[in-house]
């Protein structure tokens, strides 16, 4: 891929890039909505990456080329602002804006983007793009950015520059991931732990439902408001108890001042924190039947408590666990579409894929399946020596 993006960059700008950087897409196995309650997230970078090539211009112009879309956008250092019509380029523009806001000086650049990560199906392609862009610009200008600043620049691109309701977990996973490992985040302390991925034949399959994710920012904000409503209803500020330290018993019945919808949202997040820890224990002890059961319980909770699944994802998850060799399955992504992730014995993969033929007959489109392995985090693939 480095050779390919180098060729794309040279064909577009008439010069080889000075830097090529890349970052992985990722999947969240548990806790993707736990960020609102400062809980735990268990994720895994995948072996599909987003590549960014860059070279310095002699002026303050900014040029962006998408090798996948064959589209071009442009701006200037002084004219950096969000433009709806710039679509995909806003992510890289937002990174440059964030780096400047952090106090670093940059000049005009030529940027080429090339991705292996499918978009809009819950694999965090936008976070891979922003992290890879930060790493490329940091290397290009030899900026003394800390790890925290790299992650902040990637996050700010989506949250501040583009006005999206995005948190910190995705750029953290894309940056800190370790090959051959799951990545566990403690959102409150921002601690990162790595847990070994099981050896073959254990396999994780991603199944694309072909239904695009449709959760909007207002719904994401609602989850955050539900956590705050729970904190106020239980008066946690006075007791010193953290939201994430609540047990299911605390919300097992009606709580005065807490709406039923918020209670169900918070119940999911509280249970999910426990599932993260229990899944890690099961994987570490090679108790894959238990791990799979925990995975499917999480899907049921997303379906019944958060109510963010859809018929296609429910069908895929349920049919998966009815297949020989499958331990568990769960939807991934923000909601209402995207993919499922299935934990199984990879030697029986063909049987699982055969069952998906029924999906086409029922829903009218074919689900696609691909195996994912735990990839490494962001890195600079190539840099011309100064």
Keywords:
alpha+beta; globular; eight-stranded mixed β-sheet; 386 residues; Alpha-Beta Plaits; 12 helices; 25% strand; Ribosomal Protein S5, domain 2; single chain; 2 domains; four-stranded antiparallel β-sheet
Question: Can you walk me through this structure?
Answer:
With 386 residues, the chain is of the alpha+beta class. The protein folds into two domains: 205 residues, Ribosomal Protein S5, domain 2, CATH 3.30.230.10; 171 residues, GHMP kinase, C-terminal domain (Alpha-Beta Plaits, 2-Layer Sandwich). 40% of the residues lie in helices and 25% in strands. It contains twelve helices and twelve strands. The strands form two sheets. Strands 1, 2, 3, 4, 5, 6, 7 and 12 form an eight-stranded mixed sheet that branches. Strands 9-10-8-11 form a four-stranded antiparallel sheet. Helix 2 crosses helix 3, helix 2 crosses helix 4 and helix 6 packs across helix 8. The longest helix has 25 residues. The mean pLDDT is 94.
């Amino acid at each position: 891929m480095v050779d390919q993006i180098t060729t794309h960059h040279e064909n577009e700008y008439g010069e080889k890039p000075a830097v090529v950087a890349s970052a992985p897409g990722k999947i969240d196995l548990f806790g993707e909505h736990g960020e609102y309650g400062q809980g735990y997230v268990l994720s895994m970078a995948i072996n599909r990456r987003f590549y960014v090539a860059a070279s310095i211009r002699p002026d303050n112009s900014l040029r962006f080329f998408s090798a996948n879309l064959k589209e071009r956008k442009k701006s200037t250092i002084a004219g950096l602002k969000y433009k709806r019509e710039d679509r995909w380029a806003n992510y890289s523009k937002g990174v440059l804006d964030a780096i400047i806001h952090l106090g670093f000086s940059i000049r005009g650049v030529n940027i080429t983007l090339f991705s292996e990560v499918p978009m809009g199906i819950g694999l965090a392609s936008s976070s891979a793009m922003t992290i890879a862009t930060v790493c490329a610009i940091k290397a290009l200008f030899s900026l003394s950015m800390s790890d925290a600043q790299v992650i902040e620049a990637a996050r700010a691109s989506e949250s501040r520059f583009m006005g999206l309701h995005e948190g910190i977990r995705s750029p953290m996973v894309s940056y800190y991931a370790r090959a051959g490992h799951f990545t566990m985040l403690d959102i409150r302390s921002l601690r990162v732990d790595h847990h070994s991925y099981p050896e073959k034949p254990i396999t994780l399959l991603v199944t694309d439902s072909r239904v695009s994710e449709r959760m909007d920012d207002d719904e994401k904000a609602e989850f955050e408001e539900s956590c705050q409503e729970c904190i106020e209803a239980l008066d946690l500020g006075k007791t010193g108890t953290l939201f994430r330290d609540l047990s299911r018993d605390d919300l097992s019945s009606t709580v005065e001042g807490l709406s039923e919808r918020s209670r169900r949202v918070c119940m999911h997040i509280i249970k999910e924190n426990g599932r993260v820890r229990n899944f890690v224990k099961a994987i570490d002890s090679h108790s894959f039947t238990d791990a799979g059961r925990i995975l499917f319980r999480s899907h049921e909770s997303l379906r019944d408590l958060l109510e963010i699944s859809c018929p296609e994802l429910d069908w895929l998850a349920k049919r998966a666990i009815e297949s020989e060799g499958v331990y568990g399955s769960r939807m991934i992504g923000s909601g209402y579409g995207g993919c499922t992730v299935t934990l199984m014995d990879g030697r029986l993969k063909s049987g699982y894929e055969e069952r998906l033929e029924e999906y086409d007959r029922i829903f009218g489109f074919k689900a696609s399946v691909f195996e994912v392995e735990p990839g490494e985090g962001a890195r600079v693939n190539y840099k011309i020596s100064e």
